[in-house]
Amino acid sequence: MKRILTTLVVVFSFVLLSAQEEVKKVNGPEITFEKTVHDYGTIYVNGDGAYDFKFTNTGNEPLILSKPRSSCGCTVPAWPKEPILPGETNSIKVTYNTSKAGPFNKTVTIYSNATSSANVMLRIKGKVEPKPAEALPEKDGGVGAAPINQ
Fold this sequence. Notes:
Structural class: alpha+beta
Strand order of the largest sheet: 1-3-6-5
Distance between the termini: 116 Å
Number of helices: 1
Oligomer: single chain
CATH architecture of the domain at 26-129: Sandwich
CATH topology of the domain at 26-129: Immunoglobulin-like
């Protein structure tokens, strides 16, 4: 009886592991991002609002991206128009318009022919602040200035 039970457990384990391997072998393109959220922290008005979201085609067929959609006109995506072959890495550049001060939290939806994740939402967030005023040089007679001889 012990042998039969042991044999059944071994066979069941083998079948379960084989089924898991089949799940991993999905045919078609797949898009895998290094990260889908970027926090700029605090940036200054008219500062660099660009960020590259890096991704890899982890599938076994060419990945094709179609036009991304941003949540507002202040966020502009640039994406590769050519197919990304299996194993290749590329990026989607998202540029936020930093001409106005204030917090922001924007999204860009990426559309592709990926088998399991055809739509991926990328998010950028942060706060735009005015540049601090530059310190003016001190005029003659200020602290540390040489005494005026009369």
